[in-house]
Amino acid sequence: MSIGHKITNFTTQTHDHKTVTQDNFQNGKFVFYFYPKDNTPGCTQESCDFRDNMAALKTMGIEVVGISKDSSEKHVKFMDKYQLPFTLLADESGEMCEAFGVFKEKSMFGKTFLGIERSTFYIVNGIIQHEWRKVSVKGHVEDVVNVVMRMNATS
C-alpha cells in the first residue's frame, strides 16, 4: 500500500480484545504507526511522543493507532505503564504488517531477521494520504503533526 491507495483487508485485535477490520477505519482521520516492540527504548519514546502530542492531533480530528506484533496483554501493560491514551492493535499474525509492507528483513549484530520497519501512515477515509518509512524516532512525531497540519489546512 502506498499514498493514494485504499487500505486493504485485515482483521486484528485491539488491546482490549475487540476485533477490528479495515472497515473500522473507512471514516475519519487516522495516524497508524507501526513499531517493533512494546517497552523497548525507541518504541517507548515514539509512543510517549504521540501521547504528548495528542492534543494537537485531536484538535485536527485525528485518532492515533499503534500497531505491533505484541499481544493484547503486553499492550495493556505498556499502555498502563506509560498512560497511552490511544488504541494499540495486536497484529500477532503479521497480517497488517504484511499488508502495509512494513515487515522487512533487518539486521542486528551481524544476524538477519524479519521484523517491523518503523513506519507511519496518515489515513483519511480509508485512503493513505502520507507515509513515513524507515522512521527515526527523534523528531518524528513533530514531523507527523506538522505534515498533517499542513495537509488539513489545504483540504
| Count of DSSP H/I helices | 5
Tally of DSSP β-strands: 9
Q: Could you give the distance between the termini?
A: 22 Å
CATH architecture grouping = 3-Layer(aba) Sandwich
Q: How are the strands of the biggest sheet laid out side by side? A: 2-1-5-4-3-8-9
Secondary-structure element pattern, one letter each: EEEHHEHEHEEEEH
Helix content: 25-40%
The coarse overall form would be: globular
Radius of gyration: 15 Å
**What is the mean pLDDT?**
92
Poorly predicted runs are none
Provide an overview of this structure.
The protein has 155 residues and is α+β, with helices and mostly antiparallel strands. It has a single domain (11-154), classed as Glutaredoxin (3-Layer(aba) Sandwich), CATH 3.40.30.10. 32% of the residues lie in helices and 31% in strands. The protein has helices at residues 41-52, 54-59, 72-82, 95-99, 140-154; strands spanning 11-14, 19-21, 29-34, 62-68, 87-90, 103-108, 111-116, 119-124, 127-132. The strands form two sheets. It has a seven-stranded mixed β-sheet with strand order 2-1-5-4-3-8-9. The longest helix has 15 residues, at 140-154. The mean pLDDT is 92.
